[in-house]
Amino acid sequence: MPTPRVSLRQALGLGDTPYVALVGAGGKSRGLFTLAEAYPPPVLLSTTTHLALEQADWAEEHWPLEDPSPAALQRLLEKPLPPRRILITGPREGARWTGPSPAQWEVLRAFWETQPLPLLVEADGAARKPLKAPAEHEPNLPPGVRQVVAVAGLEALGQPLGERVVHRPERFAALTGLVPGETITPQAVARALAHPQGGRKDLPEGAAWRALLVGETPEQLAGGLRVAESLWAEGVRVPVAVARGHETRLETLAAHVPTAGIVLAAGPSRRMPGVNKLLLPVQGEPMVHRVARTALEALLDPVVVVVGHDAEAVARAVADLPVQVMHNPHWEAGQSTSVRAGLQALPPGTGAAVFLLGDMPFVPPTLVRALVAAHAQTLAPIVAPRVEHRRGNPVLFDAVTFPDLLALHGDVGGRVLFDKYPVHTFPWFDETTQRDVDTEADAALLR
């Protein structure tokens, strides 16, 4: 199996010592043990429901608690933990292991609060179906959990809604608006995940929520991107990991994050006196309109157009587009002020932003989508195209760089961070995409 370029831990944005519960269907157990391997031991794993007998063998060490008293677990935790990934369960019931008792869960919670180590929990059951809708008593979240990851199996995409692929299909139908037998779409999966009675059911106040989509075929994995984009359209701006299952573990293929577009359109046309180049027509539309439309067609959301010089005219040029116009009153102080203005307009949960220059009208949506795809596969702090052995435009910046971008001053842009952060580049063979419009000669080419 090839080494994943992004670990599941990175893809879900989990910290060094998470207390996380996996709920939902299609791939929870594999996700649990894959996450455990992303952390240095000791790591504690458990369940509030049950695990199959063979799944307990996936752990390096197993502590089955026959005695449900808190003291039985307390005695084990008082000793130095071995440097292993330790599964803690209750007693065996038939062909599965149960979870610790409620009193023992209070012990585990208190232990995690005083010890810097991960606590990873499977907190739902789905009868081995790729999708589910929770019953009234589900999910069975452990006390004090800090992160919840909702898991869905992509093999259900394109299948008719029914018992074969959905646990509790009648509840799933109520959450999504589908009827039994209707085809399950990415939009339906997103609605089920985002619903407060679906994948977000009983989410504790202050707990972070994530989504994990597990597939096998290229078609299923491509469907995962459509689920992610539909999920954000539901107003839930969270990272979505897309993974392929391999026996007992998951291989993370992509980490999709909500990605915004920021069109920098505040500067003057210093080399073209008396002309606002951003308003020059390019194949029948103002140049800035074309750039903003490219960002929209690349499915960036939101798209923010930062205006400054000749602000009213530039704003009117994009008035028919579903973009947010952000006025930068300090545009004369340099490009850094527009970078800050654009970032400050972004909603919470934005995972990355693509900066597009308003005077580069030949960048196609496919190039912008290539930036987003490269970021999903690498989570690199900065992603840029490589054109004729040079870094080109536009450039994507991960949210990890936002504090540094907000600290910029003067007539500089994000490229000053290229020496601080790793930059992932990929080849782009169309040099015409890098043409900008700075002079009368450039404008003549447009005509």
Account of the 3D structure:
It contains 14 helices and 24 strands. It has 447 residues and is an alpha/beta fold. The chain has 2 domains: 8-256, 3-Layer(aba) Sandwich (Rossmann fold); 259-446, Spore Coat Polysaccharide Biosynthesis Protein SpsA, Chain A (Alpha-Beta Complex). The strands form 5 sheets. The protein has a 9-stranded mixed beta sheet with strand order 4-5-2-8-1-10-12-13-14, sandwiched between helices. Strands 15, 18, 19, 20, 21, 22, 23 and 24 form an 8-stranded mixed beta sheet that branches. Strands 3-7-6 form a 3-stranded antiparallel beta sheet. The mean pLDDT is 94.
What topology emerges from the helices and strands here?
Blueprint: H1 8-12, E1 19-24, H2 28-37, E2 43-47, E3 50-52, H3 53-56, E4 61-64, H4 70-77, E5 85-89, E6 92-93, E7 96-98, H5 102-114, E8 119-122, E9 131-132, E10 147-153, E11 166-167, H6 169-176, H7 186-194, E12 208-215, H8 218-233, E13 240-246, E14 249-256, E15 259-265, E16 281-282, E17 285-286, H9 287-297, E18 303-307, H10 311-317, E19 324-327, H11 335-344, E20 352-357, H12 365-378, E21 382-387, E22 390-391, E23 395-398, H13 402-406, E24 423-427, H14 440-446
Parallel strand pairs: 1-8, 1-10, 2-5, 2-8, 4-5, 9-11, 10-12, 12-13, 15-18, 15-20, 18-19, 21-24
Antiparallel strand pairs: 3-7, 6-7, 13-14, 16-17, 20-23, 21-22, 21-23
Helix pairs in contact: 4-5, 7-8
